[in-house]
Amino acid sequence: MKIVVLDRLTLGDDLDISAAEKFGEVISYDKTDADRVAEYIKDADVIFVNKVKLNENNLKDASNLKLICEAATGYDNIDLDYCRKRGIAVCNVPGYSVYSVAQVTVSMVLSLVNHLKEYTRATSDGSYSKGESANILKPVYHELYQKTWGIVGYGAIGERVGEIAKALGCNVLAYKRTPVENVECTDIDTLLEKSDIVTVHIPLSDETRGLISKERIAKMKKTAILVNTARGAVTDEKALCDAIKAGRMAGFGTDVYSVEPFDMESPIYEIKDYDNVCLTPHMAWGTIEARERCFSIMLENMEAFFSGEIKNRIDLK
Question: Using an 8 Å Cβ cutoff, are 221 and 174 in contact?
């Protein structure tokens, strides 16, 4: 059996993937350009993939292909309809990054709420040492206690963030397609209007693309902070950046972008140095524990498939 890893570096070069060798020959590519995908997978029985787009154009000649193992929970890079038509099984890895993403999400919120960028600069640039006061208390910052924290997408990650928000004394609102009893659920517009903090944890789909639109961003409080650790395209990035530049939003943090990495033409690039902006390079999912968990589940998915079991099969949905 031949296993082809198309974008090894997205898992981190410190992650040991040698355990896959017990299933067969492993051919690993650090990255794969779009025009090389078909060539690399033409003899593959199994594909391990994270970000590379797989569709009819590059899958049609992979006659041996039986299984695609997505190294993530999201799978918008794979044409599921074509895979179903071809009888190619597709598995994802749900739940592996819950603690990692929640941790980074809350870290971003706390950094923005507490103006840590500005306060740490006051000590690192010497202005605090040269001053005459024992304290620097500007810019003014606020407690999260009794503030409203809105969570867009209340799956495993959203629920974990909600638990932390409640522990910080926040009132939690959630937008969830199927309401649950353990949190106050509301529609997306009401959530955006009422929330002091908004965090986004919803998968990207045709229904959620552009969900946080220009019109909805305009409904938010001017004192609100929004953090996105889901998918960049769930938001209107230009509208968010315009709101930051115009002072219509107190803070913006994101780990995800509609184009990754974002380039100099992106509206994100124009605000990258703003004090009330926190940008990270799609790393929220990637603690070493989460990556090890992810790869372990990928191997379990593959073993289950070749044993005739159904495990994390998204092509069957």
Answer: no
Task: Report CA-CA distances (Å) from 285 to 12, 77, 156, 223.
Answer: 12, 17, 13, 28
Instruction: Centre a 10 Å sphere on the Cβ of residue 18 and count the other Cβ atoms it contains.
Output: 7
Residue 58 shares a structural domain with residue 155: no
Same domain, 92 and 103: no
DSSP-derived secondary structure letter, 68:
E
Residues 195, 148: Cα–Cα separation, whole Å: 5
Active-site annotation holds for 291: no
pLDDT, tens digit, 9 for 90 and up, residues 158-209: 999 999 999 999 999 999 989 888 999 999 999 999 999 999 999 998 999 9
State how far the alpha carbon of 130 is from the alpha carbons of 120, 124, 126, 235, in Å.
Answer: 15, 11, 6, 42
Query: What's 26's domain CATH number?
Result: 3.40.50.720
- Set 184, 260, 303, 309: catalytic member: 260
Q: Is 260 a catalytic residue?
A: yes
